[in-house]
Amino acid sequence: MSVLTIDVGTSVIKSVVFDDQGQEIALSRIGTEVLRPRPGWAEQDMDAVWNGVVFTVRSALSQLGPVHDQVWLVSFTAQGDGCWLVDADGRPTGPAILWSDGRAGDLLTRWAADGVLEEAYRRNGSLTCSGMPNAVISWLAAHDPGRLERSRTALTAAGWLFLKLTGVTAIDESDASAPFLDHTTGAYDPAIVDLFGFEAHARLLPEVLGENERIAEITHHTAGELGLPAGLPVVMAPYDIAATARGAGVVDPGQACAILGTTLCTEIVTRQVDTSGEPCGINIAYRGRERILRAFPTLSGTEVLDWASRLLAVDGPAALGELAFGTEPGPGGPVFLPYLSPAGERAPFLDPRARGTFWGLSLDHTPAHLARAVFEGLALVVRDCLRASGTDVHELRLCGGGSASDQWCRLIADVTGVPTARSADTELGAKGAFLTGLVLSGAESSMRDAAATYVRMRSGWEPDPERGAFYDGLYESFLAWRGAARSLGWSPATTTDVQKAPHV
Fold first, then answer.
1. What 3-state DSSP class applies to 329?
2. Comparing 115 with 277, which gets the higher pLDDT?
3. Reduced DSSP (H G I as helix, E B as strand, rest coil) percent helix, strand, coil of the chain, to 5
């Protein structure tokens, strides 16, 4: 018997089939297109996303041959945040506006100046960014009110899949966590709704389903479309960064992982929401009210490696790594601030105007020095997020496409001072959906037991003390250069800060 999982990412949709030992036995992928009709915008065609799901599911099932009818469960995860608006018939009223969209940046500036962002953070531990539904819908109310009038519900990518698969219109607690969830009740916090002036749009908020409520039967029509038996149970797992943490076996307090993907997301399991300290990151409902995932999903991740590859005229991130790690770390190298997203940055600080730069360049520097600085800059962001969490961790599990690089995994251990490890699985978001499906269907008694049974690690790296001492100094330089960049408004064209940089 096998489990079909679906992972709808921002750039790739994957369908993975796991056998009863938790091994991947079929995999299909298809790329997706992020539409950028205007500078700073990030959208996707919702029907195209669904068509990608259909293609990958049918392709994965075809790899199983005549035994595909032994699939007994479907479980899925998807990219988080954003705004996927549908009408009363469940049809899109326009393209999905993604988590990485930056059109509401000026709105964030106003909310920050008015103290709204901090007050909301003090209530539920999540700092609003421009790609969250409160920001997107507020922007639409000012610039495209007709679309809101045509819309019945503001879903997320996972909500869109659940609607297409089961006909149920809802959101899970992880996706609902930011910005409106009251973690003590598992429902929307009316005070946060009021705080953002969202009363007129509250009708768009979907029902929040608790940990044990996110399971329903696949519809007859969708079963036929996907080539699955009718009546299969479908589980909505937490959204991708939380599902990936589960897939890496990060389920207990003090465990941590870093996703080296489109978002460079560092996350730590805790027992309760922490709303103290500098407002940064988000707190995600991870297992009802029993566990919280403290997450720092950046807006810039491995796309920075793609950019640097083009800049330095090498053939992709793997070649960039060969160039970078052919040099040794040492004083006098450039420092790189990797804030390249047009939407700025959101973790571990919020600034829609954040921009990247190289500092300390000289005629002595080569393309290899620049390449190494790029990897070091991204590794320093992971360290920055761990520091912002205020939590001690004993191991950092690495996943996402970037974790395929042994050198980068070793570099992150040296930069953070924390041992790093990599899973034997390649599709950890899908693996997290698999584990969630087993627990919610009753096949496994707990997430801890499921992770202990099915999660396997294959590589690990210990920090090098000598290099660690060097990177302690480089981190201080990184913070100093970032402070200088912010004091200059990041670039000559931007002069307004949103929020004081943490730790600077």
1. coil
2. 115
3. 40, 20, 40
Beta bridge partners of 85: 154
Q: Which structure tokens are listed for 476?
A: 């201080």
* Cis omega (within 30 of 0) for bond into 179: yes
Angle between helix 367-389 and 303-311 (nearest 10): 160
CA distance to 44, 126, 485, 501, per residue, from 346 (Å): 21, 11, 16, 11
Average pLDDT score over residue span 73-92:
97
What confidence score (pLDDT) does residue 274 get?
A: 87
Q: Are 338 and 354 in contact (CB under 8 A)?
A: no
According to DSSP, the residues that pair with 285 across neighbouring strands are 292
Answer for the pair 298, 344: CB distance below 8 angstroms, yes or no: no
Quote the crossing angle between the two packed helices 133-143 and 105-113, to the nearest 10°: 110
CA–CA gap between residue 301 and residue 261 (Å, rounded): 6
164 closest CA partner among 59, 76, 81: 76
Q: Which H or E run includes 292?
A: strand 291-297
Q: Name 457's bridge partners.
A: 423
3-class state of residue 368 by DSSP: helix
Tokens of 170: 């809802």
Residue type, 164: K
Determine the Cα–Cα distance for residues 262 and 266; give it in Å rounded to an integer: 12
